[in-house]
Amino acid sequence: MTTQPLGDPASAVATAPAPASAPRPGEPPASPPPTRALLPSMLAVSLTLFATYAGLIAILLPTQIQLLFGNAAKEANLAIVTTTSFVFTLFAQPLAGAFSDRTRSRFGRRAPWMVVGALAGGILLFGMGSLTELVWITVFWVVIQVALNFLQAPLTTITADRFPRSKRGGASAMIGLGTQVGATLGIMLSSALAAQFGVAYSIFGAAVIVVTLLFVLINRDWSSKDAAVEPFRWGAFFRGFWINPRRHPDYGWAFAARFLLILGYFLVSTYQLYLLQKYIGLSLVDAQGAVLTLALVAFVPTLLAIGLSGWWSDKAGRRKIFIYAASAIMVVGFAMPLVMPDMTGMIAMSIINGVGFGVYMSVDAALMTEVLPSEGTDAGKDLGILNVATNIPQALSPSIALLIISTLGGYAMLFVFAIVFVVLAAVATAPIKAVR
Predict the structure, then answer these.
(1) Which residues are CB-neighbours of 172 under 8 A, at least 6 positions away?
(2) The whole model's pTM is what?
(3) pLDDT digits over 358-372, tens only?
(4) Structural domains of the chain in order of their starting residue, each with its CATH number
């Protein structure tokens, strides 16, 4: 991990010195220092990736399923697709992280996997809109999700690779900024092209490929081709996916806290298109427009929260207080549609949750890099396992939401359970000792 200051991106890439000595067996090679191009490049990839996630999940996939299979079974069919993808993508990010930790190539450790993930996911997106059978929609969705996870995991690890602890709040905020801006732009594009979802899928696929290729070309990694590496053993590799929470309690609590908060957030957002129809009473076309409205009203509050809290947490040297604040704000936000079950309540929720989720996104990734059991050799794998705490609740949220809707009182109960999970996330953050 280098602590050299930012410099001219071209000269830094061209003249970056090789590591002073060969790394010890099993130790990854040093990564190049961050250049001025790195943060905006991370922003661009994060923006594109999360625009794709948001556009697909919020608008394109639910619209495609509703138009193909009708209103009666839309929730169940969406749950089938997303839950199946959960089974296959459960370990995608830790596998991608672990593979990249051990990758030896002249292009470095992370870049090859980012390119493979972008190409596989982007190419399949070109065909997604032409599918008319649920089984093929499910197959394509699974492979696309796995591929994009193989892009996302190395991108996440670059924060730990190239930035010192004191600068990770800013790097985390940049990814959070890309997440929010991307989500808004993705929803805007998918809403505008909802009637031509095949075209929208293709645009997202092309964007993922182009932006990722530009990232790895502009931000070249040092070669890892000659780095020493211990003999590979499958048994030890898979045993490494179990990180004992008794030996590493901070890591375990961080996993639980992220899992709970993401689950609470996505219980509502995953079914938002259907929620606006069933709970608020809008038509499909009006609901598509309302999803865009909700994204737009949250946009500026989220950006302000991300920018301020990421910088502030670095300056204060504290992370947990920001997680507590984010949780409290989101509890208020989820209560708004219960008090006002109309678009006014939904707009209030989006604005308030924009602030809360923005604070959380800007600080959480930095916190995660500070609880890793082995920040050097296995940083990619360890961060990949923590990213499972994002993937699992997102993937399971349609099934859990369907259970809540069908057995526990309808769409209104989604907000109640979201509040419960967010509160539990704050409680799970409290025992973490390595981070203030």
Answers:
(1) 159, 310, 361, 362, 363, 364, 365, 366
(2) 0.68
(3) 888 777 766 666 666
(4) 36-221+245-429 (1.20.1250.20)
